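Anyone else keep sequences and structure tokens together like this?

Example one:
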Amino acid sequence: MYKISHESKGLVSHGVSACAGCGLELIMRNVMDVVGEDTIIIIPPGCSALFSGFCNETNLKIAGIQMNLENSAACAAGIRAGLKIQGNDHTTVLVFAGDGATVDIGIQSLSGAMERNDRILYICYDNEAYMNTGIQSSSSTPLGASTTTTPAGKSVSRKNLVGIAMAHNVPYAATASLQNLVDLRKKVKKAKETDGTSVLHIHTPCPTGWFYDPKYTIKIAKMAVNTGSWILYEWEDGKVTVNYRPKELEPIEEYIKIQGRFKHLKNEQIEAIRVEVKSRYEEFLRKNG
């Protein structure tokens, strides 16, 4: 068992080279605090790879491996199978991957794991683009957002990761956000204790790729939820529970205005986004309210 020194408490070191205002670091620290040291983590290339470190250096005090973008879920399934043969049913097998590594490149191996219902905890921290390699668009990039591969703004809407997990009928899947860390931690605990595949999709504001002042990270996370751009809910044993409903949706314009990735938009494009977000939010509540 490791010993906590007075210099570095918890499972994440103090010295982490995340960008100023990075939502990912706060998520990682909270996730690690909940899952505990009896965890094996699989991290593919991406922003979270800074926690894997390189050579014999790492920012995490748990066992882990850095895998490829396309096979993190398959690697986790293999580790779980190996632990099962050893009679180990207590160690958490955790994948911690970005949106590109999840909804794009890694979706096939994740789908296989969900189909088999392998007992792994899969977390997608979603900063809505390939931030680590130059801010390219991913399937999680929202409508209208400018990236280096969609400089005029993305022309289509994002994928629904939890919807995909629900279609596989996994035991537990949920969305989460920095907007509510108590809710996030509760869902990580539920996912950890799930007997089967669990999937968490965590909204992760990125000052570098979204072009906003780093001090606004939490504010932007709250705005995303309060405008209906990000819905907090969970799928548990075949039932959807909406965890938070704003009394009234805040204007999407304020959320868009604070982010440089939307500065190119004209009024009619902003209106199209407002209509898309509102209709998607209302349809979700009709189906699951």
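And example two:
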Amino acid sequence: MSRGIPKATAEGLLVNGFVEPIVKEIPLEYSIELNRLLQLEMEGSVG
């Protein structure tokens, strides 16, 4: 938050950073769905 990034956005960036190598290895259809599921899961988890 000291960098001007909201907490929810920062946590999303961290998660995506860890998941990205896996997402690059799976087929595109699955990676799109995985990203959607992660966004939905994280929407209500902060706060």
